[in-house]
Amino acid sequence: MCNLYRMTSPADAVAKLFSAMPAVGANFASEVYPKYTGLVIAEGAVRTMTWGFPRHAVSKKTGKALKPTATNNARDDKLRGNPMWRDSFRDRRCLIPVTAWAEAEGEAGRMTRTWYSLPGGEPFIVAGIWTPTIEWGDAYSMVMVPGSEQMSDVHDRMPTILPSEDRARWTDGTPDEAFSLLRTWELPLVVDRTDVPWIQRSAPATSKPPILL
């Protein structure tokens, strides 16, 4: 599942590229981690939201509530039945602009980051859903489908990449129409295997990713 992705185009360029209303003062990180602010296109406008729906739990030792964790990936086969996703899939579908997403590759304890993108380097659109939250304001999650053959040696799930002709149907179509678009991307991917350790997924407070406007 995706727990890190890049969005390296500024918000006004995203608005122009995907014919959306531009955002005013949209601050977001070029590398997005769970609970980070990312760009989405919702209700025809570019907006910033927190990546991940809040999930609550209590401590097994004390019984006290723990800080919520971010559930940032929604499986396609859980969208209609899971209460966390059901209403958002029905009523609040969005588009997530992405430049590349990362997966952990290698043996446990020595995993590195492998990046996947589309040929040409332009941002592409991933299917998403969003919800208002008390904890973080509006929050979004990526919708995942079975992984393609090209990435089968790394992970069995991947983000739902939407071609241009399917984007309006994803956001504005009926739930049945939207569900029919949840397909594995079978066209070529650009694969960038790096030596960067996956365990650095939490950016140090003194070295945050650059902010794009």
Describe this structure in words.
The protein is mainly β and 213 residues long. The chain has one domain: SOS response associated peptidase-like (hypothetical protein yedk fold, Alpha-Beta Complex), CATH 3.90.1680. Helices cover 13% and strands 38% of the residues. The strands form 4 sheets. Strands 4, 5, 8, 9, 12, 13, 14 and 15 form an 8-stranded mixed sheet that branches. Strands 3-1-10-11-16 form a 5-stranded antiparallel sheet, with no helix packed on it. Strands 2-17 form a two-stranded antiparallel sheet. β10 and β11 (112-117) form a beta hairpin. It is globular and about 50 Å long.
Brief digest:
By secondary structure, the protein is mainly β. The protein has helices at 11-17, 83-91, 167-172, 175-179; strands at residues 5-6, 28-29, 31-32, 37-42, 45-51, 53-55, 69-71, 73-75, 93-98, 100-105, 112-117, 124-133, 137-146, 157-159, 161-162, 190-197, 211-212. Helices cover 13% and strands 38% of the residues.
Number of domains: 1
The fraction of residues in strands falls at 35-45%
| CATH architectural label | Alpha-Beta Complex
Highest CATH level, the class: Alpha Beta
CATH topology: hypothetical protein yedk fold
Name of the CATH superfamily: SOS response associated peptidase-like
Helix coverage percent: 10-25%
Rg for CA atoms: 17 Å
Which series of helices and strands comes N to C? EHEEEEEEEHEEEEEEEHHEE
The structural class is mainly beta
Number of strands: 17
Taking the sheet with the most strands, its summary is: 8 strands, mixed
Helix count from the secondary structure assignment: 4
